[in-house]
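question for whoever is on the cluster today: can someone run the full assembly for these? two chains, 687 residues total. i dont have access anymore since they changed the login thing
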Amino acid sequence: MSTSAISSPLGSYLRPLAAILCVDIEDRDGPLASEGEARDERVENHRREILIPAIAAHDGRLVNTFGQAISAIFDNPLAAVRCAVAIRQGVIRRNALFPRQPGMQCRIGVSLVQLFGNRDDVAGNGLNAAARLQSLSEPGTIYISAGVYQLVKDQLGYPFRSLGAEKLDDTGEPVPIYSIVFKPPSVARPSRTGWIAYATAAGVGLAVGGAAGWYRLDATSLIQGDKPPALVITAPQDPERVATAIEPAVAPDSYAPTDATPPTPPPRPLETTASAAVAPPESPADPPATRPGQMSLAAAVAPIPTRALRPYEPFRECLQCPEMVDLPGGTLAMGSNDDPTEKPIVRVTVPGFALGRLPVTVRQWRQCVAAKACSYEPTGDDDMPVHNLSWNDAQQYVAWLSSLTRSKYRLPTEAEWEYAARGGTSTKYWWGNQIVAGMADCKGCGDASDSRQPLKAGSFAANPFGLQDMAGGVTQWMADCWHKNYRGAPTDGSVWDEPNCRERVLRGGSWKQDPSYSRASSRDRYDAGVRYPTHGLRVARSAGD
Amino acid sequence: MGGITRRTLLSAAAVMMPAASAAQTPAPPGAYLYIIWPNDGERIKGSFWCRFGLRNMGVTRAGDTTSGVGHHHLLVDVETPLDPNEPIPSDKNHLHFGGGQTEVRLDLPPGDHTLQLVLGDAEHKLFKPPVLSKKIRITVFR
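^ ran it for u. tokens below:
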């Protein structure tokens, strides 16, 4: 659909900013890779666990289905595209979590749509255009129409690639279409040599569609919003530069377009050994968290062999260790104007680090107690986040994890935590500015909450970085000493400590607090030596540690 | 007693689970909690020290289960009654002094505020009967 629809004579009935997303989930290895009930069930699981929550989280409304494709309408095109990115990341992440199942992939199209009177009465052309874009799209990609491109290009934080023009609707007029450029998710990066090979592979993947050459966002021209599509050609002879350009850190809205510096390069691989090559799948006892083929090496306290990390992919360093997510560094606007303790807003650049995918659970904590390294005896079900911890208790746990591995586990800093909780967003919650039922475990966040105890860890959808329970549940202890506001706060993501610190910072809000405490920027504090029932932890690990 | 039992049953029914809380800690006879300063009705410029007083009981740190001792909590502008079966909330209006502190520097926004002290047991729960100070009203101005 072209942007000329915006000036249509339909007048006030027209809602030109509505966008429609069409998504289809299919087998990654072709339709014959799996069949029957197991496949249908997997598709249904993707719908239930990824598509529906992502659409709800971005304020979308389901409108129709074509076969197994799903369409949803969004008042805000940026939300529609963000939703598409979240769905794509969710599918990739789910593949990584269930390595023994046939992989799935999504194809997504986003176009503008005209709405009349009734907001769910969708004009056929818009629906058809999104479905057509979806069917044109390469597996694992997101195609958007020119109208959507014009509205989101300065705000998304990902580069785009022009794909020429295609007929999208009944008018028969070819419309320019674009795809969002992601790095290929399935290529490991063990070395600089590997990088070049990977960039070449990316070149093959991206050459599909007829347009030749490399494109990347030109940050300078993005500052002037009225310039024509901000695409420049980068020579394919410089593969490393290209590889960097096509993989930006997901940056907060307010900074992404004005950053003249190139996006943060991906984190360096961990120390790599000859055995680090990805082993063939065997029978992992705990598929979501453990690399296949490594179980036999993982004795009771033996660290799991190191390997190259991929951003946003969960990993685990020892059998007792919590699952960690490797996060590339980035910049955020830390704080808000919602509370005096969150002012002034500070621009902070956080280096790459790893953060627990979930809060530490009762089961994980009990292993520390059994090893006589943690003194607090937890209560509650094994899958519940451990709670009623003092900061000193939390320190015992991270010291124990460090003793099990060769890594330095620690509590996250406030800046790291907020960077991770925002997941590239700048809204109050990662899903928007309003509390949405079914997104967090807090008082007034939906019916699921229980006043006496937290819900099971991992009960809610992951944020764009793949982290769960960053809003509500147990409030999480930070490394930092409490400061009553951000005046003088470090801007490099490091810990803000004080000698003889009595009160430490807590983040994330609890299941007993109202939604305002679950905001990404909300800060709380407590005596470091005192236990309180809603306080728990999530562990962090520096990139080089 | 009857009122508390009935409320317990109602709240238990609401969350579909039994009230698992341990029995409340008994308060010693004559326990008296009060705010030393400010006085009720005080008009205060800027931030100020609020000081806590306790008679016939001792102040200790949270987690100490010795009988006859507890720790302070200061309720700022709190209207909601406390649930005797739940820990005293911890948020911007329910300030905890689990280290055994007996004073706090408050920096409240200009306007009228209420202050009330509540003594908590080892698990931050109310004693039985509750040990509460009089709720005072103050006005803060710049």
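summary bc i know u wont read the tokens: DSSP finds one helix and nine strands in chain B. The first strand of chain B starts at residue 32 and ends at 37.
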